[in-house]
């Protein structure tokens, strides 16, 4: 249990929500692929005295005094970020992945310029120019899709055709619900042909790239990566932008983050990022990242065994997207709710060209970073996938749900969330 002594004494109402969330996490399995558990060291940094300090600007160039320790801390965090991602420059101040993307757009483009990114319905992200977003009013977004939904193959010929027609300023690689690796080499060649910057939004696979388990876009000449520091990197909730080698781009990005988009950075979170980056530099982190993928493949095997359609035919990374409505007659919302009842948390998700709505789609999205943090391996991943299929096939059986809830709780008790990730 965490020590909430002071909150308990002065704010019992809020204390109850903290204890309730801790119990939910302790007794249930987190399969939302964008969530993870952080170490106690990361939590300590996030709750540290750095929350008291305003630090507008960058190390050595602040607008307020009293920065000797914030400067030292941010420099350490930047150095670790560059080491993790083979980057020459890093901005560790973005408050989240969306904030990082917006700052990147303003740094690299002028209003009205064009971005070529992945279509949301085929796995992209809202910040890649979905019509409902404010950024869509500022820049012009055109999209590429999968050529074959059964395999996940991107239509690179169509991507090139669209690039030649629209002459984008940025070709954006990245996704929120796509389970295969992108061909960075092909995308870089197309970008060079049309004179575009190459940016990879690796928010979901940040940790897998840092560990060397998935390809690093910088190895293929990409200019910039945007990312989140939570998810598979297992750090605090926040964002980051790293630049391969261009000092000019780094300066433009720094200016876009501050003063362009944000005021004072959240220095307690920057400190927590630094702690997480050191954890990710530990050799044990690669073993962890490798296990994330092994666990996802184990879950893939169960869903295939039960003839449940997987978008892109399976996974190369940490997540899976399943068409449960087409395969089982259960909507994504129904599946999310019934799995919540037995202590398995994931999210409903639209599938490619989904005939249903975003709030009641055909699919579910689930992943393995958080369960792997608890030490679960292929046997546990297989068991969880079988429990998922069982309850989705018999979603109205109250007796079954009670039994499976007990099984999930027992599994969680055998694999508690650790306080430390390094020896």
Describe this structure in words.
The protein has 423 residues and is an alpha/beta fold. It folds into 2 domains: 238 residues, Aspartate Aminotransferase, domain 2, CATH 3.40.640; 128 residues, Aspartate Aminotransferase, domain 1, CATH 3.90.1150. The chain contains 16 helices and 16 strands. The strands form 5 sheets. It has a 7-stranded mixed sheet with strand order 4-12-11-10-9-5-6, sandwiched between helices. Helix 5 crosses helix 9, helix 11 runs parallel beside helix 15 and helix 15 runs antiparallel to helix 16. It is globular.
Put the structure in a nutshell:
This protein has helices at about 5-10, 10-25, 40-45, 70-85, 95-110, 155-165, 185-195, 205-210, 245-260, 265-280, 285-305, 325-330, 330-340, 370-375, 380-395, 400-415; strands at about 30, 55-60, 60, 90, 115-120, 140-145, 145-150, 155, 170-175, 195-200, 225-230, 240-245, 320-325, 345, 345-350, 365. The protein is an alpha/beta fold and about 425 residues long.
């Amino acid at each position: 249990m965490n020590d909430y002594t002071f909150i308990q004494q002065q704010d019992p109402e809020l204390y109850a929500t903290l204890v309730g969330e801790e119990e939910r996490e302790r007794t249930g399995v987190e399969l939302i692929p964008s969530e993870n558990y952080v170490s106690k060291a990361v939590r300590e940094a996030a709750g540290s005295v750095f929350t008291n300090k305003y630090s507008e600007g960058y190390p050595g160039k602040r607008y307020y005094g009293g920065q000797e320790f914030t400067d030292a801390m941010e420099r350490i965090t930047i150095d670790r970020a560059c080491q993790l991602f083979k980057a020459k420059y890093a901005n560790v101040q973005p408050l989240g992945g969306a904030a990082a993307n917006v700052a990147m757009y303003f740094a690299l483009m002028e209003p009205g310029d064009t971005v070529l990114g992945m279509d949301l319905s085929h796995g992209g992200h809202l910040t890649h120019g979905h019509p409902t977003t404010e950024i869509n009013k500022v820049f012009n977004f055109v999209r590429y899709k999968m050529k074959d939904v059964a395999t996940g193959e991107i239509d690179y010929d169509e991507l090139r055709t669209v690039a030649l027609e629209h002459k984008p300023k940025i070709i954006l690689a990245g996704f929120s619900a796509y389970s295969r690796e992108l061909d960075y080499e092909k995308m870089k060649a197309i970008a060079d042909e049309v004179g575009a910057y190459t940016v990879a939004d690796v928010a979901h696979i940040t940790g897998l790239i840092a560990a060397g388990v998935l390809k690093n876009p910088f190895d293929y000449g990409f200019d910039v990566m945007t990312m989140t520091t939570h998810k598979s990197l297992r750090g605090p909730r926040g964002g980051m932008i790293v630049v391969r080698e261009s000092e000019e781009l780094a300066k433009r990005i720094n200016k876009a983050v501050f003063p362009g988009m944000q005021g004072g950075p959240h220095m307690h979170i920057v400190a927590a990022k630094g702690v997480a980056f050191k954890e990710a530099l530990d050799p044990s982190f690669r073993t962890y990242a490798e296990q994330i993928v092994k666990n996802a493949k184990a879950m893939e095997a169960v869903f295939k065994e039960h003839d449940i359609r997987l978008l892109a035919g399976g996974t190369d990374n940490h997540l899976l997207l399943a068409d449960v409505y087409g395969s089982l007659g259960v909507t994504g919302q129904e599946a999310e709710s019934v799995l919540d009842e037995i202590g398995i948390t994931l999210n409903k998700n639209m599938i490619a060209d989904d005939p249903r709505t975003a709030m009641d789609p055909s699919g579910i999205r689930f992943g393995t970073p958080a369960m792997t943090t608890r030490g679960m391996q292929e046997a546990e991943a297989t068991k969880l996938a079988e429990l998922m299929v069982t309850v989705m096939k018999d979603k109205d059986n109250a007796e079954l749900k009670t039994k499976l809830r007990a099984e999930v709780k027992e599994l969680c008790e055998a694999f508690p969330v650790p306080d430390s990730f390094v020896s």
